[in-house]
């Protein structure tokens, strides 16, 4: 969604708050010339309250980045565990087994999250076979735990990313409406107070 305001969300919020105060102060003068409607104040209060109710985007982004880092950390742990299983199978003389060969062909480097998830599902399905070939249950159990952790974290990351996009569009929509109203009120205020000191209170920038 396209932004219609040229400064930060905090500055927009501060300007709307300041304008709300001066409009209440100057209500009699503003309405006396027929340019200003009292409903503008109520509308401004409503839009400002909605705008401030959104979680700051910086906080949403921080949570998303934290989940992304967690996904990367768990991915490294999973790849390390796969290598350990490969070494165990080599030590046990299982290099010709189909399971060892399958491990060697897994695509776990430089792949998308979806591809990585698809590959580790194969590991999860075949982990009982690794145990039967002599790989300790502690290793396969740990791997399965990491896979479950990865899937849960990735789901959370993807949901938060989608939610951020939705919230950003909602925030921009409200901010655009707030900008349009602030701009309209400022134009009226500048007309009404063009020859007074109060003119400065209605400058949008």
Brief digest:
The chain is mostly helical. It contains 7 helices and no strands. Helix 1 runs antiparallel to helix 3.
| Main sheet overview | none
Q: What is the subunit organization of this protein? A: single chain
Radius of gyration: 30 Å
- How many H/I helical runs? 7
Structural overview:
- With 205 residues, the protein is mainly α.
- It has 2 domains: 9-57 and 169-202, no CATH class; 70-161.
- The chain contains 7 helices and no strands.
- Helix 1 (9-25) packs antiparallel against helix 3.
- The two termini are 23 Å apart.
- The mean pLDDT is 90.
Features:
2 domains, mainly alpha, about 200 residues, 7 helices
List the helices and strands and how they pair.
Layout: H1 9-25, H2 27-32, H3 39-53, H4 57-91, H5 98-105, H6 113-132, H7 137-192
Helix pairs in contact: 1-3, 1-7, 3-7, 4-7, 6-7
